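Hi team,

Below is the intake form for DUF433 domain-containing protein from Parvularcula bermudensis. Please confirm the fields before the structure is written into the shared record.

FORM ID: S-0412
PROTEIN: DUF433 domain-containing protein
ORGANISM: Parvularcula bermudensis
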Amino acid sequence: MTTTSDLTVKETAQLAGVTANVVEKALETKVLKAKEKKARRRGGATRFLPVNAVIYLAAIKAAKLTDLPVKYKKALWAQLKTLEVGTLKPVEFAPMAILKVDELVSEPYAKALRYVNARDAHIVSNPEILGGTPVIANTRITVYSVLARLEDGEGLDEIAGDYPSVPREAFEAAAIYAKANPMMGRPKRPWHAAA
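The structure came back. Fields below:
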């Protein structure tokens, strides 16, 4: 796998199974360092992390190492950021301190890699299409409509079955993208909800 696409702070949090506050704390303590780049969409995030940050955050959570001193967190990240994208193996981040990230985070990391590839291949935002609302490429299916259907109890396979020409991974990426990039504008008011 040769993907090098970066993730926003919120995408990283979603994929690692942590809150955005956990990612922000790692940035604040300078364990992780975000790259400043042009937003993918108007008004979107401009701070990005490498996909390997998912390994670090998911491993810290899975191994219950949230209280690990910052110097060891930095040492762990120094080892993890050098792993070739798509590769997981145990890393020694201090003398005799080995973390078996290959066992701890294989599932969230695989999901992150699938997401990055699917997002880059299938999620587009064009001002000419629905005013720039992110959609699945070559359709008018918004990422938010996919997420809404999932939240209403439908499954990914059911949604994908309604659109046989759209790959299933496009819907999975759309849901993650929508969670990490909430719709801009006024929040819904409870009294406007459908009865």
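SUMMARY LINE: The longest strand covers residues 91-94.

Thanks, M.
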